[in-house]
Structure formats: structure tokens, C-alpha cells
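Students often ask why inverse folding is considered easier than folding. One informal answer: many sequences map to the same fold, so there is more than one right answer. In these notes we will look at a single instance of the problem. The structure comes first.
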């Protein structure tokens, strides 16, 4: 499901193992996160210093509290490879990622709101302007696609992700992904509608009247339960289709592909374990 905060999305990529050089990337977050935030609001020197101060406890929390849960998730995935995979099993892993995401989102939100209190009205207006400009870009990128282009893009995305973890795919496996992509429902229009509604709500709250930070927290929590029935239907369908495709691919993997996926998962788990050990050695607080 698409998310509203580019910063949190960037951090979540670590959990999903979407980046190479995990330990190097993670240890540079104190440099990279301000660079991402600057895409949305140009910070002055004092605000940049304040953001660095916010990042220190946030990253300490993430290293001490969240990385161990990522290690567990990866261990669960590795264990699941010893038995035939099922759609339900993959969906259970999805649920673990979702819970981890919500913890990350909640912790990141506190820091973002603290930073938001330091921004001027002009900076807030600029932040909202960037969001609406992105909205227009997404409309052009996604809504102008034909259905055939949507299905081809979906197939390419599924194929690229599968190759990342399995290596070269057989014709049979490519056919599984082609079949699965044809069952996906287009979410772009509903997603953009939900996104626009959310931005309109933010525009009101970010006038920063009394208790505006509490209102943002409440709105974020409520938003999880206020997606339209159509959006939920599309999301649930597509999640089930992708979970089924993953299960079928894993069950059809060759010995070489098995070694490939286990190696990828093991390397990522070891990276996280190294980061945890580094944090303990440096005296990172546990919470």
C-alpha cells in the first residue's frame, strides 16, 4: 500500500532488503535522511542541526528495537523455505512486515512533527506545494497508461523482484508471473483519489492551530481505517495475487535458485546482526 512519507519509505527499504550494501547505507542514514527531507522543505542551518539531534535517538531506537525484529522476520522466511510454501504463509510474512512498518511509521512521525514545529509558514506551504506537484506527476505517469501498459509494467515489476531473489527465471516461472499480473486490479486511480483527500486534510491541519501535532497523529491513525471500500478491495485482491505468485515461484525453484534466495536472505540477516552488534558495542540504548 502506498505511503505518505518519503522519509519513512526510504527507511523501510532497509527492512525489505531492497538496497545493496545494507550496513554501509544504514550507517550513513544520519547524512542521507536530511538530504531526503530537503526534497520537501529547504532547511536553514539551525533546522538542519535540530534534525540531526532528532535523528540520534530515532536511529538508536531503530537499531536497538527494530533490527532484531527484522532478523526474526528473515529467520521466519528462511525456515519457511524448508517446507512447501503456501499463499497463507506468504501473507503471514506480509503481516509481519506491516506490523514493522506501523512501528516505524509511528516513531518517525514523532520526529517529523517535532521538526514541523520548527518550520516557518512559508516552508510548510512549500512542503504542501511539493506534495501536490508530485500528485500531478503521478497522475501523468500512472493514469495515462493503457490497461495493456499497466499489465506490462506490473509483469516487469514482478519479474524484476523475483529475479533479485531467485536469479534467472524459467519460462514456466515467467508464465506464472504473466498470469498473476493479469489478475491484478488497477489501483492508481483509487490511490490518487485517497492521496488527494489526505493532502486536503493535511492542508487544514498544517495551519498549525492549537494541538495540531495531536491532530496529525489522530488523522494518521484514523486514515488506516478510512480507506474506501473499493481501495481496500483492490489492495486485498492484489496482495492475495502477489502472495500466491510468490508461493508458486518458491515451490518451483531449482536447487540453484534455492541457494540464491537463501544466500540473499542470509547475507541480509548477517548485515542486520552486524549492525545490532555495532550498536551494542557503541552503547546504543535499548529503548
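Output (designed amino acids):
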Amino acid at each position: 500500500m502506498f505511503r505518505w512519507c518519503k522519509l519513512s519509505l526510504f527507511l523501510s527499504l532497509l527492512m525489505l532488503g531492497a538496497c545493496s550494501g545494507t550496513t554501509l547505507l544504514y550507517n550513513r542514514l544520519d547524512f542521507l535522511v536530511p538530504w531526503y527531507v530537503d526534497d520537501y522543505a529547504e532547511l536553514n542551518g539551525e533546522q538542519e542541526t535540530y534534525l540531526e539531534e532528532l535523528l540520534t535517538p530515532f536511529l538508536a531506537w531503530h537499531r536497538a528495537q527494530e533490527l532484531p525484529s527484522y532478523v526474526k522476520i528473515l529467520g521466519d522466511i528462511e525456515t519457511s523455505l524448508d517446507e512447501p510454501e503456501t499463499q497463507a504463509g506468504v501473507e503471514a510474512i506480509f503481516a509481519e512486515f506491516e506490523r514493522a512498518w506501523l512501528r516505524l511509521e509511528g516513531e518517525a512521525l514523532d520526529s517529523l512533527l517535532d521538526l514541523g514545529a520548527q518550520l516557518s509558514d512559508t516552508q510548510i506551504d512549500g512542503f504542501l506545494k511539493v506534495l501536490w506537484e508530485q500528485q500531478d506527476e503521478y497522475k501523468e505517469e500512472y493514469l495515462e497508461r493503457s490497461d495493456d501498459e499497466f499489465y506490462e509494467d506490473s509483469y516487469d515489476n514482478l519479474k524484476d523482484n523475483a529475479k533479485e531473489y531467485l536469479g534467472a527465471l524459467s519460462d514456466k516461472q515467467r508464465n506464472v508471473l504473466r498470469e498473476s499480473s493479469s489478475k491484478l486490479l488497477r489501483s492508481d486511480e483509487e490511490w490518487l483519489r485517497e492521496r488527494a483527500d489526505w493532502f486536503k486534510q493535511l492542508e487544514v491541519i498544517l495551519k498549525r492551530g492549537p494541538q495540531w501535532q495531536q491532530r496529525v497523529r489522530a488523522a494518521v491513525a484514523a486514515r488506516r481505517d478510512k480507506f474506501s471500500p473499493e481501495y481496500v478491495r483492490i489492495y486485498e485482491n492484489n496482495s492475495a495475487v502477489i502472495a500466491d505468485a510468490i508461493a508458486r515461484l518458491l515451490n518451483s525453484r531449482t536447487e540453484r535458485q534455492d541457494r540464491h534466495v537463501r544466500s540473499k536472505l542470509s547475507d541480509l540477516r548477517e548485515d542486520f546482526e552486524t549492525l545490532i552488534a555495532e550498536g551494542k558495542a557503541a552503547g546504543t540504548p535499548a529503548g
